[in-house]
């Protein structure tokens, strides 16, 4: 009779490369690991590993066997985890993807009220949506929407982008140029500053520039940091400027660590969405996540 633990042990040996490593991962003894492997090899009638002094090397058949069983094992373990972590509310374990900055700035302090266990994944919308479409995630806080089949996008928040600097940064010249509507000179002043940016393709800065200067930005970033909270913290302790979402900058502005230089001639805004596959989530899960996001508006 096939034992699922044999397959888990095989997976652990394959991924760690040693019997000891597998034992540590599975929280069982090394003799038990050896016993599971021997039983599996006897059951399928093939040698899966070559036993070397310090390493278990998969045979050709072992490699083939791994590629054929790993997806099924991962799915079974995922289902087992859902049942293990389901709370008394009967809401299943819920996996949610979102930008790291959104979680740490506005959601982290709210999650204790959730009536279910939650697993969070951080990343960019494009990557997170791929995981939503593949079923690895149930919900995504997305910064844009598309028209994928069965995917629902519910708008829940507007973010406005602000031009930000250190609180003590001298912006007198820029302020004067803006007040007299000398926008070409104001843009020139901006290009001469030290810029902190999220990525080299400048997506948010491009939007702000096109909205307010009707052209693409001609700036050379000094620092590229893929974390807006880290960018704002860097500016709070040094010099330089950036363009960031209002909800991320709010606390540091109130603490007088950074300041808003300019909202722009026209507000540059973006809609944030709750995205989910309507066929993969329960009504209780949807209502729970909606309520959590509603709390972030306070």
Give a quick summary of the entry.
Belongs to the LysR transcriptional regulatory family. This protein has 298 residues and is α/β, with parallel strands linked by helices.
Task: Write structural notes for this entry.
The protein contains twelve helices and eleven strands. With 298 residues, it is α/β, with parallel strands linked by helices. The chain folds into three domains: 4-84, Winged helix-like DNA-binding domain superfamily/Winged helix DNA-binding domain (Arc Repressor Mutant, subunit A, Orthogonal Bundle), CATH 1.10.10; 94-158 and 271-295, Periplasmic binding protein-like II (D-Maltodextrin-Binding Protein, domain 2, 3-Layer(aba) Sandwich), CATH 3.40.190; 159-269, D-Maltodextrin-Binding Protein, domain 2, CATH 3.40.190. Strands 3, 4, 5, 6, 9, 10 and 11 form a seven-stranded mixed beta sheet that branches. A two-stranded antiparallel sheet has the order 1-2. Helix 1 crosses helix 4 and helix 2 (19-26) packs across helix 3.
């Amino acid at each position: 009779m096939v034992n699922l633990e044999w397959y888990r042990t095989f997976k652990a040996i394959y991924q760690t490369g040693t019997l000891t490593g597998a034992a540590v991962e599975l929280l069982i003894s090394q003799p038990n690991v050896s016993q599971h492997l021997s039983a599996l090899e006897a059951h399928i009638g093939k040698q899966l590993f070559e036993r070397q002094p310090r390493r278990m090397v998969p045979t050709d058949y072992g490699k083939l066997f791994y590629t054929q069983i790993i997806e099924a094992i991962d799915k079974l373990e995922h289902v087992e985890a859902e049942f293990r972590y389901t709370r008394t509310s009967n809401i299943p374990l819920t996996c949610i993807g979102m930008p790291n900055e959104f979680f740490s700035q506005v959601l982290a302090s709210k999650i204790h009220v959730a009536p279910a266990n939650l697993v969070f994944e951080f990343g960019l919308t494009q990557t997170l949506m791929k995981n939503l479409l593949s079923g690895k995630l149930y919900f995504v806080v997305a910064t844009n929407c598309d028209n994928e089949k069965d995917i629902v996008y519910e708008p829940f928040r507007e973010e406005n982008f602000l031009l930000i600097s250190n609180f003590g940064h001298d912006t007198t010249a820029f302020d004067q140029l803006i007040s007299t509507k000398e926008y070409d000179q104001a843009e020139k002043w901006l290009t001469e500053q030290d810029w902190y940016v999220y990525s080299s393709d400048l997506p948010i800065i491009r939007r702000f520039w096109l909205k307010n200067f009707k052209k693409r930005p001609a700036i050379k970033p000094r620092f590229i940091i893929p974390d807006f909270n880290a960018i704002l913290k860097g500016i709070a302790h040094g010099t330089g400027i950036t363009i960031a979402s209002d909800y991320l900058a709010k606390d540091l502005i109130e603490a007088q660590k950074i300041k808003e230089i300019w909202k722009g001639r026209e507000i540059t805004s973006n809609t944030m969405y709750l995205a989910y596959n309507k066929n993969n989530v329960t009504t209780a899960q949807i209502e729970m996540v909606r309520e959590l996001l509603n709390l972030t508006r306070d």
